[in-house]
Structure formats: C-alpha cells, structure tokens
C-alpha cells in the first residue's frame, strides 16, 4: 500500500483555499491526493451511459490502495461542492453495476474536511458524509470545518487540524 490515506479534493479551484488546507495536511501526514477537477466523471445516469469515464477506474484505485478516504470540499451555497456531489451520486454505480467493487468499501474509513472563509458552518453539513459512510458499511472518523483568513490558515484552525489528523488511523 502506498499510503493509508487518500484525500479527494473537490474544489472548483485546484489552487484555492481547499488546496491550502490540503497542502497543510500533506506536510503533517503522508497522504495521496486526487483532484476531482482533473477527472472526467459524469453525472449519475440510470442508463449507465457514462461507463467509460474516470469514476470506476478511480474507485478501483482507491479501494485497492487506501483504508481512509478523506473528502476535502469547499462550502458552496451551504453544501458540498458540485464536484463532490457528482462523485457521491456515482457511488450508486457501485450499488447497481459494480456491486463487487462496492462491497469492498465495507470496513474502509471516511472523514471530511470542509473549507470556507469563516467559522460559520451550518448545522447538518456533515450529514451526507455520515449517512453515506453508514449506508456503505464504512467507519466515519469525523469531520472538521476549516477556514482561511487573509490568505492564510488561522492558528486556531491549525491546532484543530493537528488534533483531527492525529485521530485519523
């Protein structure tokens, strides 16, 4: 196994605030990173016309090589990014056409980091992550809201991230 943790970066800006948080994490913990913006992943389709996109090969790589999936998403309109929502919707492929692969998610671990410009995450933001982990038989390790101020990570956020990262194992 290369690394135990893969970060799924789900921002519309590959070098934005979410990347700033991910870069901090990668200096503290050995992780691999996948930027969904650089992948071709179509929306869920009940007719499964998007079988040749990047989703199934990406999931095969993730399931084969990692125990912990850490989702990193900006907060867009009080919710996860569109990139991440599409990714989550496509997990339905693993329940319909790639069931053997989907079953391999059982026992894996999931966590989430949200990123915005303020310490003001609305209640319920983490619910889709918690419930998806539960539904898929994954262990939910928790979530952390982070924010950027004046193009930097506030000390309080750094302390919170260090504590959060220490719990990931």
Beta strands, count: 5
Strand content is 15-25%
Sheet with most strands: strand arrangement: 2-1-3-4-5
Biggest β-sheet strands, sense, barrel: 5 strands, parallel
Give the helix/strand class: alpha/beta
**What is the mean predicted local confidence, pLDDT?**
95
- Residue windows where pLDDT falls under 50 for at least 5 positions: none
Helix content: 25-40%
Number of helices: 7
Q: Kindly provide the radius of gyration, computed on alpha-carbon positions and rounded to a whole number of angstroms.
A: 15 Å
Can you characterise this structure?
- The chain is 38% helix and 20% strand.
- With 169 residues, it is an alpha/beta fold.
- The longest helix has 13 residues, at 155-167.
- The model has no long low-confidence stretch (mean pLDDT 95).
Topology:
Layout: E1 5-9, H1 17-28, E2 31-35, H2 55-65, E3 68-74, H3 82-90, H4 93-96, H5 99-103, E4 109-116, H6 127-136, E5 139-147, H7 155-167
Parallel strand pairs: 1-2, 1-3, 3-4, 4-5
Task: Give short descriptive properties of this protein.
169 residues, five-stranded parallel beta sheet, alpha/beta, 7 helices, globular, 5 strands, single chain
Task: Give a brief description.
The protein is built from seven helices and five strands; from the N terminus they run βαβαβαααβαβα. It has 169 residues and is α/β, with parallel strands linked by helices. It has a five-stranded parallel sheet with strand order 2-1-3-4-5, sandwiched between helices.
């Amino acid at each position: 196994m290369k690394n135990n943790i893969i970060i799924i970066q789900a921002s519309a800006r590959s070098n934005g605030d979410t990347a700033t948080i991910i870069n901090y994490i990668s200096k503290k913990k050995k992780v691999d990173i996948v930027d969904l913006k650089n992948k071709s992943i179509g929306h869920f389709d009940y007719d499964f016309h998007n079988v040749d996109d990047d989703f199934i090969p990406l999931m095969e790589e993730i399931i084969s090589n990692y125990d912990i999936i850490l989702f990193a998403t900006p907060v867009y309109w009080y919710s996860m990014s569109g990139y991440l929502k599409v990714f989550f919707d496509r997990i339905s492929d693993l329940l319909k056409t790639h069931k053997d692969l989907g079953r391999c998610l059982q026992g894996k671990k999931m966590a989430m980091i949200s990123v915005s410009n303020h310490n003001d995450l609305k209640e319920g933001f983490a619910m889709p992550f918690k419930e998806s982990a539960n539904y898929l038989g994954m262990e939910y390790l928790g979530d952390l809201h982070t924010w950027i101020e004046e193009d930097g990570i506030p000390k309080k956020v750094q302390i919170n991230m260090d504590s959060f990262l220490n719990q990931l194992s």
